[in-house]
Amino acid sequence: MDSTPSPSSSSAFDLVSRALGRYIPQGGAAAAEPRGDRTTRRQVPDNPAAGAQEQILGAVNLDRDLIITRCNLEAPVFAGLDAAAGRPFVDLLPPGDVPTVTRRLRQVIDSGEAHVARIQRLRRGDGSELVVSMSILPSAAPEGGLTVSVIAMARRLHLYAAETAIGTSLDIGETAQSLAESLLAWGDVAAVDLDFSVWTGEGVSGRAHGRIRLRRAALVPDRVWPDGYMTPGDDLPGDASRLLAQAVLRDDAPQTIVIPDGEAVERVFGSPRVARALVPGDLSAGVVCIPLVLDSVPPVVLGVAEVWRRADCPFRDSELFDLQELVARTAHHVDLARQHQREHTQVLALQRRLLPRAGGDTIEIASVYQPATPDSAGVGGDWVNSFPLPDGRTALVVGDVVGHGLGAAATMGQLSMEARALLSAGLAPDQVLEHLDETVTVLDDAESGLAAGYSALGSTCCIALYDPVGHHVTLSSAGHLPPILVSPDGRAGPLAIRPHPGLGAEFALREPFDVYTIGVPPGSVLALYTDGLVEDPALSIDEGMGRLADAVATVHPWDTLQRAARHVVSELAPAPQRDDVTLLLARMIGYRKGDTATWRLAARDDAPARAREHVSELLRQWRTRDDTRHNATLLVSELVTNAVRYATGPITVRLIRAGHGLLCEVGDTGNGRPRLRRAGLLDDGGRGLSIVHRLTTRWGVRWTDTGKVVWAEVAR
Question: What is the pTM of this model?
Answer without folding.
Answer: 0.57
